[in-house]
């Protein structure tokens, strides 16, 4: 397979025998050509075969299994027919969103996420009507099964997403006890970024004659321009400024090897005038969610993260990945940089290398079977390349799904007077009790005024700019 995920010779979704509503949804989100993982797994998935696939975030794996789930869903049957088990809440949210997007033309499809860290009470309410598709983390799913609040005996398609990560996190027993409550006639799809022996053992334990598909890491991404630069530890910050001045990425994830460095670097960058947020294990769930939301909304342009915190994160159109610290693990390097150059777009990966760490570059060269030059970053005049302003600011509203607010209501309120147009409005996310809306940077204050003065669905809501 070629090194780009979307090339001329990739097959088209229209060649698959999919229900028309699904084809319509795929074309609405502009998925025309299949990515390699989709092309290689689609026919097995659609035939109802079990599948074990080695594929990473960014490969298009979510759509690959979502198509399988949705193509055979019986909407008129109010029963949980598909279950996707994910290691983290972030991944569960992303997976549920993708399934919902592809189900947009299948009226009344209910997709529910069940993850820890969320109030049990809200989930119990949502479970009063059985959802068609459930996406969740092992611990919380098990809790619902034990309480008898979730019934998965009718599940036809079961997906284990990032199975290697779930095993790393010690979820084996939970997964097995969840699977015990499903029918043995189910179709089981197992996705994993790596393929250690534990994965083949679990596959043997839970699957029947699975089709095996493997997509090399280099097949999941578009061409990535890799640049390595020397920077001694104490000169790294200056080197980072120089690299950002030279390449001017619209947005970037910056990787540090240690979480203590993540927060420190984030604070320093914000003081220097950049718009950055940190993502590491010491943050609480709300802070993590907010960092990811602001970055995805393009209200902050830099996300400083550890590997663990950034795993599974799917951000569209990431201009660059910057390795502030080079990783000692070459496979991890490939995972990191695979976040840029998604779905055929060109990507940029910048890696700072302390002269004592040149052996790490050599390990990466060996692993990727290629050679890199390590260059020097020239000084640059900051006046020539000012820090770019983010595209948007994000506003939080004090009302959500519970108040029957939908994205359309927010757009309606914002555009009621002629002060704002639809083009000024970016991503909208409506959660249970709050909602977030991204607004063009220069229009945020106008939006704030409108939202505080206008009523949304006849309700007065509070609004504030969070970044
Ligand atoms: P995933 O590996 O499932 O996290 O998907 C990576 C990204 O690729 C997501 O942002 C998807 O929206 C996008 N994507 C998936 N399949 C396609 C496709 N066939 N064409 C274009 N984009 C896609």
The unreliable regions are: 1-8
Number of strands: 20
CATH superfamily of the largest domain: P-loop containing nucleotide triphosphate hydrolases
**What is the structural class?**
alpha/beta
Name the beta content range: 15-25%
Counting H and I runs of at least 4 residues, what is the number of helices?
17
Oligomer: single chain
Name of the top-level CATH class of the largest domain: Alpha Beta
What is the residue-averaged pLDDT? 90
Rounded Rg: 23 Å
What does the largest sheet look like? 7 strands, parallel
Helical fraction equals 25-40%
Order of neighbouring strands in the sheet with most strands: 3-4-2-5-6-1-7
Overall 3D form: globular
Bound molecules: adenosine monophosphate
Q: What is the CATH architecture annotation of the largest domain?
A: 3-Layer(aba) Sandwich
- First CA to last CA: what distance? 42 Å
What fold name stands as the CATH topology of the largest domain? Rossmann fold
How many structural domains? 3
Give an account of the 3D structure:
There is one protein chain. The radius of gyration is 23 Å and the shape is globular. The N terminus is likely disordered. By secondary structure, the protein is an alpha/beta fold. The chain is 35% helix and 19% strand. The longest helix has 14 residues. The chain folds into three domains: 206 residues, P-loop containing nucleotide triphosphate hydrolases (Rossmann fold); 161 residues, Rossmann fold, CATH 3.40.50.300; 74 residues, 2-Layer Sandwich (Alpha-Beta Plaits). The protein has 17 helices and 20 strands. Strand 3, helix 5 and strand 4 form a beta-alpha-beta unit. The strands form four sheets. A seven-stranded parallel β-sheet has the order 3-4-2-5-6-1-7, with helices on both faces. The chain binds adenosine monophosphate. Adenosine monophosphate binds next to helix 3.
């Amino acid at each position: 397979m070629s090194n780009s995920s979307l090339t001329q010779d990739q097959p088209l979704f229209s060649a698959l025998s999919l229900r028309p509503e699904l084809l319509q949804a795929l074309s609405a989100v502009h998925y025309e050509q299949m990515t390699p993982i989709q092309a290689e797994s689609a026919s097995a998935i659609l035939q109802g075969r079990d599948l074990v696939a080695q594929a990473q975030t960014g490969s298009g794996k979510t759509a690959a299994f979502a198509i399988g789930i949705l193509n055979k869903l019986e909407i008129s049957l109010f029963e949980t027919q598909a279950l996707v088990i994910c290691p983290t809440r972030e991944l569960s949210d992303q997976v549920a969103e993708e399934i919902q997007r592809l189900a947009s033309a299948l009226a009344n499809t209910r997709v529910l996420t069940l993850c820890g860290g969320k109030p049990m009470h809200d989930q119990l309410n949502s479970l009063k009507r059985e959802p068609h598709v459930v996406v969740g983390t092992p611990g919380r799913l098990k809790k619902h099964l034990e309480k008898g609040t979730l019934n998965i005996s009718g599940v036809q398609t079961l997906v284990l997403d990032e199975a290697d990560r779930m095993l790393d996190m010690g979820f084996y027993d939970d997964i097995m006890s969840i699977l015990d409550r499903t029918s043995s006639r189910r179709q089981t799809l197992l996705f994993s970024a790596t393929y250690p022996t534990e994965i083949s053992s679990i596959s043997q334990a839970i699957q029947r004659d699975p089709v095996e598909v493997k997509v090399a890491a280099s097949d999941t991404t578009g061409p990535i321009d890799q640049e390595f630069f020397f920077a001694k530890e104490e000169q790294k910050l200056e080197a980072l400024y120089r690299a950002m001045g030279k390449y001017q990425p619209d947005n970037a994830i910056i990787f540090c090897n240690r979480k203590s460095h993540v927060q420190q670097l984030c604070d320093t960058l914000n003081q220097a005038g950049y718009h950055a947020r940190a993502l590491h294990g010491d943050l609480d769930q709300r802070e993590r969610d907010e960092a990811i939301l602001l970055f995805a909304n393009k209200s902050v342009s830099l996300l400083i993260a550890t590997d663990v915190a950034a795993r599974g994160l799917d951000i569209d159109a990431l201009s660059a990945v910057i390795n502030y610290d080079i990783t000692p693990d070459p496979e991890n390097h490939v995972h990191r940089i695979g976040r840029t150059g998604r779905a055929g777009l060109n990507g940029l990966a910048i890696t700072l290398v302390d002269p004592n760490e040149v052996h790490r570059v050599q390990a990466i060269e060996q692993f990727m079977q290629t050679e890199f030059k390590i260059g020097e970053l020239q000084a640059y005049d900051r006046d020539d390349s000012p820090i770019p302003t983010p595209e948007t600011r994000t506003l939080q509203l004090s009302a959500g799904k519970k108040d029957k607010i939908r994205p359309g209501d927010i757009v309606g309120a914002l555009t009621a007077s002629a002060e704002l147009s639809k083009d000024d409005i970016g991503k909208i996310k409506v959660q249970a009790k709050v909602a977030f809306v991204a607004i063009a940077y220069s229009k945020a204050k106008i939006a704030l005024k409108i939202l505080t003065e206008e009523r949304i669905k006849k309700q007065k809501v509070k609004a504030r700019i969070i970044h």
